[in-house]
Amino acid sequence: MNAREEILSRLKPTVPGPAAIGADALLIAPERPFVDATALEEGFVAKLSLPSIAATHDRIDTLADLPAAILRYCIEQGLPPALYLPPDARLSGCDWSPFAVHEAAATEEPVVLAVARCGIAETGSLVFETAPDAPMLPNFVALHHIVLLEADRIVAHLEEATLPGPQPRAHYWVTGVSGTTDIEGTYVRGAHGPRFLHVILVRAALPRR
Amino acid sequence: MSDFGDRVDLALADPILKIAVERTAGTAEAKRALAVDAFPDFEDARDRAAAIKDHVIAHLGAYLEEFEANAIAAGAQVHWARTSDEACKIVIDICKAAGARTVARSKSMLGEEIGLPHALAEAGIERVETDLAEHIIQLADERPSHIIWPAMHKTREQVSLLFKARHRSPHQEETIAAMAESARRELRTQMLGADVGISGANFLIADTGAVCTVTNEGNAELSLVPPRVHIVTAGIEKIVPSMPHAVHLLRMLARSATGAALTQYTTFYTGPRRPGDRDGPEQMHIVLVDNGRTTMREEGLAEMLRCIRCGACMNHCVVFRQIGGHAYGGTYPGPMGAVLTPVLDGLPKSRELPNACTLNGKCQEVCPVRIPLPTLLRGWREKSWREGLEPKTMRAGLGVWAWFARRPALYRLASGSALRAMRVLGRGWIRRLPLAGGWTDHRDMPAPEARSFMAQYKSGRRR
């Protein structure tokens, strides 16, 4: 018997009946933090400001306002106007002329822009999926991670951020900045990944991908 | 004195260790308490978490097959390993086939359990530990002393010396932030340049074939996205039926481990790079490891397979907080380690671990999946007795006690004279007690009442 057959032969069910029925019953009314469904944006922004997340945020009306908002952030932070832009066609209509734009992320990228699919009010998390126009690595080599999020795309709980059906290669939730407590339990910001997270909420819906 | 006894003596004599352990475990305990208080119905949520894990363990074969089919459909390759040796061989063969010289590893207790660091070294493959704590203990050539904070036994001064000796451009300033920055500089290029990335899994999602990792540092993603090959080694008990089940356990895991609502980076990987993707590995391999788990399920330790490796049991353990993790001598320390180590290393080598427990029940009170740890530890004690592993002095002593206990009149006479003898040795506290040096070498023994409970009861003084 090979390893697979031997392991499976010893794992016969210990209770009768198909597994799926019992599995669904375990998800009825799960205990979870209360989220005010009538104030998702306020709830989400309040989470961003928690010391454990320590993200900043800004609000813009339309996508056309995005370059100016990023420039504002760079000036406030004393950063040169250089930016990694993902190959997302929705961003190509913006005027990026104030920036030195990087199309390939280097080992260290001072400022990286990403577009989140949604935000989660329960935890203040940002939700991303990989795709040809949404590489993953730039979001982790960034020092300043700037995330564009449609204000209407904030969901209440973690469950609503999951995708049904076949999954993208990577689906990831970012909750605040990279941190560590590995030396004497002392919290340090920016362990391996981003040290700063800045969320820009856009009022108008983005064009379809 | 046994090996375990020697290690405990060393740990108790170390003036720095207890401070280091207390700093991190104490903070974790306080943060967990706040997170649990802020959560609605945490007790009900623990019931649900235990029920989810029990359901999976009951149907483990079916869920593994479902996971395997979905992972393969997404382009991953799935391997099965009965033992740690089989698991290591699979990993090394994949690394060799990929022509790998360097491997970036994202902290995984299963990797430690199966001895992967050693196997990689034997195969001549350079290993880069990317979690900050794992990096520290790799430089120090030590083993993890905690499953969440593997370097909790190290002080900042010790870390500073290590980094100054080993980093290419070490920190100048003696702050923890500067030390973390030095590790960031040192490891960034090594992670991006590795040939293979190896991780464990916090969850395997049966209905999608996805592998979930959680980190706060972001080192998993930096270690697993750039290399050509991603290898996952996961215990077969890590399965959950679907994403919503994983979500419930993630809420419990983060709160129980660090007191956070969620880890900073929670990632679900499904298969290798897709057409048109600009990053991601060309191959994804998942090694499903048994290593004693089917035996645990068959032999009365199924409840231990609920464990989601949060570390709350050790953070709250009075014994762990005195002796730290290394004294336990196994991969997993603390209460969960004392249950698992006899499975992994054999009871004859580890029978003292279940005895190094006060049975105060604190671990069971905080366990997010309600593992009855004290009951399982008592089970090991009984097994050790039945199999004749307890030392002769212990067997003889208990034999004498049992002989008296079956003869009540004689027992009362004997215990009465023992009480009188003990009161001669001290009033209030006894500093030295013949035959009980194991106790009085380290602390005083309270002197007993003048008469036994039974004697007082009979004379009508107890009501």
Automatic annotation (TrEMBL), chain A:
Pfam families: LUD_dom (PF02589)
InterPro entries: FTHF_cligase-like_sf, LUD_dom, NagB/RpiA_transferase-like
Name of the protein in its database record: LUD domain-containing protein
Species of provenance: Sphingomonas natans
Taxonomic classification: Bacteria, Pseudomonadati, Pseudomonadota, Alphaproteobacteria, Sphingomonadales
Cross-referenced Gene3D superfamilies: NagB/RpiA/CoA transferase-like
Location of the LUD domain: 112-202
Superkingdom field: Bacteria
From TrEMBL, chain B:
Pfam families for the chain: Fer4_8, LUD_dom, LutB_C
Organism: Sphingomonas natans
Domain LUD: 64-289
Annotated protein name in UniProt: Lactate utilization protein B
Residue stretches making up the 4Fe-4S ferredoxin-type domain: 303-371
Ranges where the Lactate utilization protein B C-terminal domain occurs: 398-455
Keywords on record: 4Fe-4S, Electron transport, Iron, Iron-sulfur, Metal-binding, Repeat, Transport
